[in-house]
Design goal:
493 residues, alpha+beta, Phosphorylase Kinase, domain 1, Transferase(Phosphotransferase), domain 1, Jelly Rolls, 3 domains, eight-stranded antiparallel β-sheet, 9 helices, 27 strands, globular, disordered N terminus
Length: 493
């Protein structure tokens, strides 16, 4: 197919979309900001909703397969660190009707966001956490991205200064173990692609890990690997086994810098066997680095959207700071009752499998953990829904909601194991709708109260106890699959 002769202009309506302004041009497509001109219920878009449209310049031969694969792969991803894809049209007989519609992200590409002298270590760590969280989700579906680069990573800045990172452009994805789309044409970005991708070798997750490491290299250094070296020379250097590693001697006293440099240098090794084995492994190392950082209260307050006095506030708009606990079975999900909100899904059916997040600073007794819970009747069951507040040894207090018996009880948590703290009371918690919980640890007593959406009390139980005195984390665990939202930890009084 030949390129269209008449260039699209602002205001043009294509199918159900009205073009607003041109955002940029790639090799095979122009990208436009557009709005939904009329409701498009088939893909869940409302009239007036802002989207991004990729208008293809030409689609022929293998490109038809590539474009179709991009859509069929990306349309199933629903994750805060992956750009959503909504609609695809390949109708060459109609002018401008070869397009892909995706989520519009207000912000900059990471390539444009990085200053010439690079980003500071904490920003790079935050970007790396979200990048590898998204990549872990991609690989969990058995998919390779194959074109991770700073130009394919969007960075948006919220009003509170927090950053959101989204990976986009699944144009040359493939299933792990499958070949590429062509036998002769290289697809990818030469400064970010692994040696095996450049030489049409067999690819697995470690090829994407190389590219993600190259993106973090760019964050730290302010330029791409092999900057100033042409693609042929850069390829020759890699074929000779010469990775563009960062100097570990320049990390100084910064444990963040040292950890980032070590991880990046492992990711960009020429031989796949010398790289981390999975995106999940990279994510866990960054999470551990984040834990080791242990920001001071003043620093954490500057970087957090939490209200003054809150030790933790999480509405899951970003999946930042969460770490696995005995299996790591938590992930961010769209709120089943509100598609504009995010929450946390505890999804693995065994106890104590779950996840935890550190408070902004350690605290002692007279503290309160509150939030909302949602259990769905069509999800599988297990031992029960549990949340707790604990210390580094996972000693603390929590509560157990048993959906089968409709009961509530308080628990000691000792090194992750549960022991009864109170009698069991009836708790007819609602299914398929949100309800609230409030766990209070006062000087000598522990109590929990559950209430429905009207504020009416569902169940309450308390017990005298003063065993545990120090807390630094919230733990989400238990057996049933359930959702958590609006987590808040604050001092009592």
């Amino acid at each position: 197919m030949t390129p269209v002769r008449d260039a699209p202009t602002p205001g043009l309506v294509i199918d159900k979309y009205r073009l607003i302004s041109k955002l940029g041009r790639g090799v095979s497509a122009d990208v436009w900001k557009a709005e939904v001109a009329e409701p498009h219920e088939d893909v869940g878009l409302e009239e007036g909703q802002i989207v991004a449209m990729k208008l293809y310049l030409r689609v022929s031969g293998d490109e038809v397969l590539r474009v179709s694969r991009e859509f069929t792969t990306a349309v199933y991803f629903d994750h805060p660190n992956l750009v959503r894809v909504y609609d695809l049209m390949l109708a060459p007989a109609r002018r401008h009707h070869e397009f892909l519609v995706m989520e519009f992200v207000e912000g900059k590409t990471l390539k444009d966001y990085i200053p010439p002298n690079g980003l500071d270590d904490k920003l790079t760590l935050g970007i790396g956490l979200q990048l590898f969280t998204g990549l872990t989700e991609v690989h969990r579906h058995g998919v390779l991205h194959r074109d991770i680069k700073c130009a394919n990573i969007m960075v948006s800045e919220a009003a509170d200064g927090s950053l959101g990172v989204k990976l986009l452009d699944f144009g040359i994805v493939t299933r792990a173990g499958e070949g590429g789309l062509t036998g002769t044409e290289f697809l990818g970005s030469k400064h970010y692609s692994s040696m095996e991708q450049l030489t049409a070798g067999d690819l697995d997750d470690r090829s994407d890990i190389y590219s993600a490491g190259a993106a973090l290299y760019h964050c730290l250094e302010g330029h791409e690997m092999y900057a100033g070296v042409g693609p042929p020379a850069a390829i020759a250097l890699r074929m000779n086994g010469d990775p563009a590693v960062l100097s570990e001697a320049d990390t100084g006293e910064s444990p963040i810098r040292k950890g980032l440099v070590q991880l990046v240098n492992e990711c960009i090794q020429v031989r796949p066997a010398n790289r981390p084995s999975s995106a999940e492994e990279c994510l866990q190392r960054l999470l551990q680095l984040s834990t080791d950082l242990m920001l001071s209260h003043e620093e954490a307050s500057e970087l957090s959207s939490a209200d003054e006095g809150a030790l933790l506030r999480d509405d899951f708009a970003t999946f930042s700071g969460w770490q696995p606990y005995s299996g790591g079975a938590v992930r961010p999900e769209v709120d089943p009752r509100d598609p504009d909100r995010w929450c946390l899904l505890k999804f693995k059916n065994n106890d104590p499998s779950g996840g935890f997040k550190l408070l902004q600073k350690p605290t002692q007794r007279e503290v309160c953990l509150s939030g909302r819970l949602l259990s769905q009747s069509d999800r599988s069951g297990g031992a029960g829904n549990r949340l707790s507040i604990a210390n580094a040894n996972f000693n603390g207090y929590g509560f157990l909601i048993n959906q089968t018996s409709q009961t509530l009880a308080l628990e000691h948590r000792r090194e992750g194991r549960a022991a009864p703290l109170s009698k069991t009371v009836e708790a007819p918690v609602p299914m398929d709708e949100w309800y609230a919980f409030r766990l209070e640890v006062s000087a000598s007593e522990v109590s929990v109260i559950l209430s429905d959406r009207t504020g009416a009390t569902i169940a309450k139980v308390s017990a005298e106890d003063s065993e545990h005195t120090d807390f630094d984390r919230v733990v989400v665990h238990g057996g049933y699959e359930y959702f958590v939202s609006d987590l808040l930890v604050e001092r009592l009084g």
